[in-house]
Write a structure and sequence with these properties.
mainly alpha, single chain, 10 helices, globular, 2 domains
Length: about 210
Amino acid sequence: MALADALETIATHWPQLASRVDPSDQQLVRRQLAAAVHGAPWDPDGLLRMILRNEPATHPAWSALERTAVRRQGSPPLRQLAAAAHLRLALEYSSTGEAEDPDYVERAAEARIWVVPMLPAGRDLPPHVLVLARGDERLAPLFQFEKDRRALLRPVAEVNRILGIDDDPWGCASWWLSPHAALRAIPADEIRVGSEEAVLAAAAAILAPA
């Protein structure tokens, strides 16, 4: 699984790679990885070029890719999704900024939300779907849906109910799309790679008495 191996290798080396990837490219990398994990079309070759363009041919990620061809057809294997999710988390943990500045924290949270693939939210929506407003648009993050993009994933509906999407949709979106300390992952990504019980437990802990 060459692509999964390459993504895992990049995640491991990200602290060293980050300084050699242009900041504008890093935002594109985030969008590509979010698309890969959440079920939208993405360009693995373009992603790897952005990350590795300044790296020598001896870099371990190039070696991982050379073992077999990058697979592009069909649904991405679970290991590939997990590797993309791991790299997404590495990017978030390595982000720099004034971590104690409330304005910076708010900007970072908003950026995490809008980097993920969205669907136009029509009137005929399933119950408990998270919908966000941007100007005149109503958008639903794609990670919530089954492959047909119509039905909501059952654990997503339950977590959205726990988080109270009707009262605080932005807080709900931030919970889903920010790194979670107990999970050591981004909850939306964990849902996509099949860690449903862990995400449900993390959400249920919000309701547990202090």
